[in-house]
Amino acid sequence: MDPNQKIVDAAIEQLRSRWPGARDSVAAAALMLEGGDILTSVSFDNYNAAATLCAETGAVAQAYTLGKAVIASACVTAGTAEGTYQVLAPCGICQERLAIWGPEVLAAVPGSAGGSAWEMRTLRELNPFYWATSFTPNGQWPSVAEHGE
Ligand SMILES: [Zn+2]
């Protein structure tokens, strides 16, 4: 199976498992690590919107805790019709979270065909003028170590 399809399927399965029959407003994410393992997590909603967390956050923190690089990411939300799902592009903050693993990390984004179609794009494609390159020697994408400095 296409590894990218595995990631999207894992996110859908996580969403189904956490919120069976959900429609809209909740999300789940899956990250593929170097070596092929997949981590999943869900959006954390709260009455105080400032306390909410994107679906990717839990898996990003877990990958970092494990010291493993993320190579690809997918986030899905339930569609308005039962049993349908839609890929969500990572928000700007999640793109920043993923950026620690470099510009070649793949992120699922809605496909140009619309509906439930999706495709993968690198972070470099999503951020052709990544701001942090202004602060590194030679303008390269910051390394994991440089992100942490
Ligand atoms: Zn986000």
UniProtKB/TrEMBL annotation:
CDD domains on file: cytidine_deaminase (cd01283)
Domain of life: Bacteria
SUPFAM superfamilies: Cytidine deaminase-like
InterPro entries registered for this protein in UniProt: APOBEC/CMP_deaminase_Zn-bd, Cytidine_deaminase-like
Descriptive protein name: Cytidine deaminase
The species this protein was found in: Paeniglutamicibacter terrestris
